[in-house]
Amino acid sequence: MNGEDETPELTALRELHRITMLVNSARDLVDVLHTAAQGVIDVIGFDAAVVNMLTDRDEFEAVTVLGPPHEALIGTRNSRDALLSEVEAGEVWGQLAFVPDGSSDHDPSMASWATSEPPLEEAQAWLPGDALYAPLRAPDGELLGILSVDLPRDGRRPDAVLCRILEMYAVQIGLAIHHARERERLAERLRLSAATHAVVQAAAGYDDLEHILSASLPALEGGFRATRAWIRLFAETNGAWDAVNLPSSLVDDLRAAISSEASHDVAGSVELLLAGVEEVASTCWQTGRILAVSRCRPDDGADVLEREVLTSVLAWLHSLDDDQVVLVPLGVADQCLGYIALNRRTGGGWTEAEEAAALDVGRELGRVISSARLRAREQELMARLEELDEYKDRVVTTIIHELKNPLSVVMGNLELARDEPDLTTRAHEAIARGADRMQALVDDLLTLTRLREPVVELDRVTVDLSEVVAEVATLEAQGAQRQGVRLDLSGVEAGVQVRSEGSELDRMVLNLVSNAIKYSGEGDVVSLTVVQDAEHVEFRCIDTGMGIRPQDMSSIFDEFDRSSSPEARAKPGSGLGLPIVRRVVQRHGGSIEVASQVGQGSSFIVRLPAPDQALTS
To answer: What was the pLDDT predicted at 263?
Structure first.
């Protein structure tokens, strides 16, 4: 049989085979749909073809439109129920559905187009309101879309042969769409697997948390096609870790976005937003899901986010000119550590593969972060152990040094008293001084130990600080006189009171005054001042003595610290006086300031809450 003897049906089948081969050889879904629609025009003989694909939001979207209806229909969406209702109301032509002009009530919400050309004047003429639909299905029967045709080239409704050809063609298009989608899903899974690997590899290349998070952001943005990525780690309730935001501008961006929308407390709104999202992220982690919020679909997320929180997120997206943010929880085991926020300029939904990959990233990145925190905690503990070991060495060295000299005095004078009875009185005095020095060291150690215990509610009473300062000055007057140091109490106001545990306050004043005298010399002055305002009581101890070297200022409150100055080290002392002062001040809710210049003296200013403030606190 030659080409001239072929029936029109056989010719159409040959063309159908040719166009089906082209459809199945298309590179991606877009090409498949365009080639399929073009086949309707070239082979089956209609001048208009529309492919409506079923989306994940249960809508039919006109993704391919060829012919005159293109401008009116491309990109339009119709609800699944509305379009299927129209199809099911039509006449059943095998697997096709024909809806004659005027045979049903057309849903006005549906996008539609009709030709303005007059129909033929015959019984089988194609009318402007006629519609012919062909379902597009996967091999398992799943509905993928609907092909609709219009404007038959001969102006007539198709006969049985043409309808069978269109049926076969619709079956082939459905198979081609299914295979194209499978290829795209496979390519997407491969891409997302590579993206997940890239994120984990970028993060695993560092040990410290800051570099881990910084390295993750570019990989997240590239792998998930995001305009920007954010990471927030929650603060731990036990205070071991503070909240972390990367980029650090996250909170400022939220505050700026909310301030443009709200007339209420912006700082409070930001805290509410962060707390609300934190709770949702924890829920998402437990349920293994992500959360998408979109300006295109503002009701997304309303089932889990408070309305005010959702409004703030949408305002934030608007300020960034982004359409969508997807929240991905990250954590390890049953603990949610924080979340990743991925912004996009398109409000399209995420595929199942993207959701699965994002959750994998949350798990893997959570594992890396948890390991980094454990390493940091381990390093912190090791450093602490080293500090404790150094502290122990300082304690032992200081105690040995401080006990050695007075013990030598005691032993030497005992031997002197035994060998020379006439010198017994002088020996006893030396032994007493040595014993006093050892007793002072023991007292300092006991005091510091007690002050280092966890702070409990102090048994406070009202104490006259002015009297305490005066009593200490009287106690230290003889020592000051021996060194030629003058005590100046002219700045002590009478009757200044504080709420205090009395013995601790005495010890604080005594240590500051005795230190000032010890490191002053002939002709120097130690000035003591006590003043009060509405909120604070202030005690100042200022001397004109030798001063403190700049390199020693940062450690003067460290236990057992001794000055690097040979002149200062020659003075006896355990290095516990100022640590005791600082601890007393802290326990009373106060503060201490120090200023010093070598050769000109030092200034210690202690501020304590006024009695009314102390009672309130």
So the answer is: 46
Contact status, residue 71 vs residue 104, Cβ threshold 8 Å: no
How many CB atoms lie under 10 A from the CB of residue 350? 18
Return the number of other C-beta atoms located less than 10 Å from residue 420's C-beta.
Answer: 11
pLDDT digits (tens, 9 = 90+) for 425-442: 665 666 666 666 666 666
Nearest to 220 by CA among 302, 376, 396, 339: 339
Strands (E), 119-166: 131-137, 143-152
Helix axes 424-451, 577-587, angle to 10 degrees: 40
Residues forming beta bridges with residue 595, ordered by sequence position:
603
Percent of the chain whose pLDDT exceeds 70: 79
DSSP string, 256-281: HHHHTT-SS-HHHHHHHHHHHHHHHH
Residues 432-482 pLDDT 10s: 666 666 666 666 666 666 666 555 455 678 889 999 999 999 988 988 999
Q: Which amino acid is at 188?
A: E
Per-residue model confidence (pLDDT) at position 212: 86
- Helix (H/G/I), strand (E/B), else coil: 369: helix
- What do you get for the CA distance between the two ends of the chain, in Å? 107
**How many CB atoms neighbour CB 594 within 10 A?**
14
Burial (0-12, 13-18, 19+ Cβ within 10 Å), 229:
buried
Structure token pair of residue 481: 């006189």
Rounded to the nearest 10 degrees, what angle do helices 266-287 and 250-259 cross at?
Answer: 120
Coil, strand or helix: which one is 101? coil
What is the CA 374 to chain-centroid distance, rounded?
18
